[in-house]
Amino acid sequence: MTAERTFADRHIGPSPDEHARMLEVVGYADVADLIDEAVPAAIRSAEPLRLPPALSETATLRRLRELAAQNEVLTSMIGLGYHGTITPGVIQRNVLENPGWYTAYTPYQPEISQGRLEALLNFQTVVSDLTGLPVAGASMLDEGTAAAEAMALAHRISRRREPGTFLVDAGALPQTIEVVRARARPLGIEVIVADLAGGLPDGDIFGVLVQYPAADGAVRDFTPLAEAAHERGAKLVVAADLLALTLLRPPGEFGADIAVGSAQRFGVPYGFGGPHAGYLAVGEGIQRQLPGRLVGVSVDADGRQAYRLALQTREQHIRREKATSNICTAQVLLAVMASMYAVYHGPEGLTAIAERVHGHAAAIAAGLREGGVEVVHDAFFDTVLARVPGRADTIVAEARARGVNLRPVDADHVGITCDETTLDEHAAVVWEAFGVGRPAGATGDTAAAVPAALRRDSVFLTHPVFHAHRSETAMLRYLRWLQDKDIALDRSMIPLGSCTMKLNATSEMEAITWPEFAQIHPFAPVDQARGYLELIGELEDRLAEITGYSRVSVQPNAGSQGELAGLLAVRAYHDARGDARRTVCLIPSSAHGTNAASAVMAGMRVVVVACDDRGNIDLDDLTAKIAKHRDDLAAIMVTYPSTHGVFEETITQVCAAVHEAGGQVYVDGANLNALVGLARLGEFGADVSHLNLHKTFCIPHGGGGPGVGPVGVREHLAPFLPNHPLRAEAGPATGVGPISAAPWGSAGILPISWAYIAMMGPDGLRAATEGAILAANYVARRLAPHYPILYTGRGGLVAHECIADLRKITKETGITAEDVAKRLIDYGFHAPTLSFPVAGTLMIEPTESEDLTELDRFCDAMIAIRSEIEQVATGEYDPQDNPLKHAPHTAECLVAGDWKHAYSREEAAYPLPSLRENKYWPPVRRVDQAYGDRNLVCSCPPPEAFED
């Protein structure tokens, strides 16, 4: 009887027969022999993973339904930066649930990313227009961390050498205040929280943060505060509600230098706290200091408009030990959703939604006043603060019994926040809970609630894109038009080294849009989120088992944030032991740029350790650096397997040497997919790691975000994990403070990784790791006769990725790694990682999910390109006029009447016969990066801007 195929069989691409053929090419009889040779015995786990047996997809979804049923979905009127919103069905189905959008990668290769780049440019335009500031980034991780980045930005542009003081208004969101404090502490910045209603206190400050509207709903005119801050040489940061800004005077018009906030209420569900797109916008002259990603407009080789990441961003300010930010990602998928919400509704629709929200709040306030309840603020947008001496808890309980969550501010005050989902019946529940009954004719006087001096009179979203897609048909076609411009995993393999672009199974994704997971407010009473807490607890426990750590926190909502959390735990550990002098962090020269950046953000001093000519840590240099810094050594950060894609044999010696000197070992978990089921970080010497759920554990990249970067620690560091001011359950009381704005970070996508682990089981997880290592070595062996493989370990083997070295080829022929990357587009592939970690190379990671047909299709493309390079070397192709130098080729350039190239149109378009059956046509030719930097345009340009 034939055995039924398991989920692991479907996740792992090659069949058993294909595995056998791959092993034959690599030169091993079976996978066990390959793993024994490739993975050092010193790190191998003696015990298999102690995880529950694999569940079928049906059983997994049944279990997720059981967990979801434990959550209680009430109407939330809690506010605090999180709001109910209606996701248009056309956006939910065609963006959030569409693999053409959610499996795309970060748009480092702009020619095959024009669709999502345009969507991000729309997002930047929305933020810029609504805030009244000229430049906005392509999204931040959340509102709290955006405020912390704004604090660092304000300090940077103040050009002060000393840490200085940052002033925060008491009306800011409580989670934002605590995130800012947590980020300021290691940098030595003093954060003062004060009521700024009466003006600025005395003292030297470099920046001021205010909330607009405030957490308690109050709307104030900050013009005098902006003037006072500027007189003192300080920058004003305004945390602003984007929907409110359709009615309120924008920050840029009253003197704000920087605006931050969240786009969550533009069609993105609560998700128990995330993922959501934060935003950061700046005034003129600050744009080149902006952290994170910035989409700009440039031109392609034919002079046509094209989008790309501006200012040469891979990660603009990830400058190793000179870093000013460790933000290496964005929330692209969520920013796309928010931008499309604005495109779909347009300025009139957004304004109408805002007026309806404000009208409900005004009506509730009027009804409360009519019933004798004191409403604290006369000017507000969506939040009413009621004073009810000694009755707050009773009123909140009464409302909850009627299906509505209100916010208990303290014993005497209750907050009521309206949003897009608020109905008249919710207002009636509020009045009943306050004991005022249903008022007669309580209506909202919007003119009274927003003073004339604060009402917006400037236009916004005037670009045609925000007026052209009102019907669902038009919106559907616009989304499809953008999607078709890009290469995502639904179209072909994305062989990116260090980024692990593998299958994101539909069954893993299914639960995230269920209301029981999507519609829970992060600050809802915890007994309404029992299913969430059980799922999170199980996921943390299973990640701890997989990594060999004692505890895991899922709060960090990106890998860089997990790095920071881990290093802050190390610092807190040393401080608690009276070793505050330990601030040196050793980092190998091959490390990810975020490693050094995170160390700087954690207040550490980076000391670089050299690598030898095989890409391994130079033990002699390490020994010398440890000896020099023995008394102030805090930690070493290493990536394992190494950034060069090799299992270093000396990792246990490295760990032992650092421990002997009193330091801690941080192992970057970016490459954990080469270890799961084979080795545990906590067992072979590591003390702390971040994990990338958007790599190893199948949360899709979403075009460059969302991500989750949990931090795992051994027992002695557990007291210093992140915690949260509004949720004691989210971390230890002795923790380092919140790393993200929400207690459990991007909780809304954790069901994806939970489902992956549940369906794979311990055997499937190990098989996936073995499959990834086999695939990488298969690709390396097939390509080695054509491209030198730069670094290998024992037996000439690599780990889960390999680096093809083109430097000698470039020297001999002039063909660069970038030329190969662009030519791969003509073959229908996204390029491997370009010039990282070594300039002039391509780092290739095939993953376990690609079957042999696709692996061979990629290898055949690379080999065919090598043949084209040889034609350049022999003179058959002109050194400058050849298919590689002019790649990629659009359909338009191929059908142009005057073909001026020495090679044929057929050679350009169909370098392999198979492409005639399934051809991806890039929308633009090679993008001119330098032009875009010289002529920086970062919002939707008018149609006539490129007429020439």
From TrEMBL:
The keyword Oxidoreductase applies. It catalyses: N(6)-[(R)-lipoyl]-L-lysyl-[glycine-cleavage complex H protein] + glycine + H(+) = N(6)-[(R)-S(8)-aminomethyldihydrolipoyl]-L-lysyl-[glycine-cleavage complex H protein] + CO2. Its cofactor is pyridoxal 5'-phosphate. The glycine cleavage system is composed of four proteins: P, T, L and H. The glycine cleavage system catalyzes the degradation of glycine. The P protein binds the alpha-amino group of glycine through its pyridoxal phosphate cofactor; CO(2) is released and the remaining methylamine moiety is then transferred to the lipoamide cofactor of the H protein. The modification N6-(pyridoxal phosphate)lysine is found at K695. Residues 9-434, 449-722 form the Glycine cleavage system P-protein N-terminal domain. Keywords: Oxidoreductase, Pyridoxal phosphate. GO terms for molecular function: glycine dehydrogenase (decarboxylating) activity. It comes from Actinomadura alba. The keyword Oxidoreductase applies. CDD domains: GDC-P. Belongs to the GcvP family. Its EC number is 1.4.4.2. Residues 768-889 form the Glycine dehydrogenase C-terminal domain. It comes from the Bacteria. This is Glycine dehydrogenase (decarboxylating).
